[in-house]
Amino acid sequence: MEDLKGKTVRGGLVKVFSQVGNLVLRLGSLVALARLLDPKDFGLVGMVLVITGVLSLFKDFGLPTAAVQSITITEEQKSTLFWVNMLVGGILGFLLLVMAPVLVAFYREPRLFWVTVALACTFPLSAAGGQHYAILQREMRFVAQAVIEILSLLLSTVVAIGMAIEGYGYWALVGSTIVGAVVSTACVWMSTGWFPGPPRKGIGLRPMLRFGGTVTLNGLVVYVAYNLEKVLLGRFWGANVLGLYGRAYQLVNIPTENFNAAIGGVAFASMSRLQEDPKRLTSYFLKGYSLTLGLTLPVTIGCALFADDMIFVLLGSKWQDAAMIFRLLTPTILVFALINPFAWLLISIGLVGRSLKIALVIAPLVILSYIVGLPYGPNGVALAYSSAMILWVLPHIAWCIHGTMVSFSDVLQAAGRPLLSGIVAAILAFAVQFIHGQPLSPFLRLILGGSVLLVSYLGMLLYVMRQKTFYLDLFRLLRGRSSIEEKQSVMG
Hints:
Elements: H1 4-36, H2 39-56, H3 63-69, H4 75-107, H5 112-120, H6 122-127, H7 130-138, H8 142-165, H9 171-192, H10 206-237, H11 239-272, H12 278-305, H13 307-315, H14 322-329, H15 331-339, H16 341-348, H17 352-373, H18 377-401, H19 408-436, H20 442-464, H21 468-478
Helix pairs in contact: 1-8, 1-11, 1-21, 2-4, 2-5, 2-10, 2-11, 3-7, 3-10, 4-5, 7-9, 8-9, 10-11, 10-17, 11-12, 11-14, 11-15, 11-16, 12-15, 12-19, 12-20, 13-14, 13-20, 14-18, 15-18, 17-18, 19-20
């Protein structure tokens, strides 16, 4: 606890930098595979990945999260949780095997059978590393986590590109998924050096199982809500349309997932250690919230303003039909940056029941938007989905903070400066690109607009909004030389 602030900031910045590497690798993989494979290849595998994504929510039953959130955990509890994870992983793998002919019949696509069979093996593989990863997170070994994530992504990307070059088509995407699971699990075992003992009874697991079960149910509801449109588009509009929508959706969600993973894992681990110190917990949450928004906003604005150029440069001309889908989905980047961090707060202080109730309200709202937009194809679905999420932001925040140590004015203060900086930067970038960018190629136009956006945003945020001290202190703490005392607020 003594060096929790230093560990949190250093871990957070390590995760941020690692996620930059993760972002580069994912974008590189997307760019390469988009040119080597066709939209139909992505759509074909995407039909199965939507289902495996649902089952993946059960592979660890929320037990690694419960292990991190728990104030204390014994060796017997860790070992028993490991074997529970393995049992669940084996059951889910078998269940997916059984579902293979069902998916073939539902989508009317016989090639899905062996794709489903191959992906079934990823469940026991991933389950074998769940508790080991939780150990790394609980011990706040964020450097090890970062190295493992980048290594598994790098090797899986190499395999995917190699198989695509050799003409394996959609099997390149399947191979990449399997290799990623193998590498990640092997690395967490080697990094922790921990070997599970035999399972035991009567060791106080019931509260952790209840907590993990609620987290899992919450994740299931949210996942179905945010992915049902892919099932509907695949069923009613076909693999090609799903491929276009899926790549646009993936490209939009890369920054959201990366920044949330970078800051969220660190914030959750730190706040879980501060459950008995509400004042410090609030301070940690607000700093993480401000940092998440500060990193996400320029990406959101860039995607919205430069969608056509980004799709052309990153994916190529054959994906140009995805540009409008991409632009219509970009508001969700900002929406998730605004609402996702509250999950850290609720789960770290044990309010998983409220988190589940919120998810049960979000799900029908989002699903209704898909139904409204489905007759108009992927563009209609994207527009309806983004509109529903924008309308949900304020009610979501109000519900999350009700009765907690965080006030609405705290949230406004943390979010206001990045938002105002983003508005000014967006106006300047749009004006410069509109006046000077028309004769340029898509690549040069993207460089021009992106540069103006980034420079103006940083200038506004660091100097006009006076956030320079906040970010400088983060870097000083990274080097172990913080000049600001623990009792002072960096947010001010």
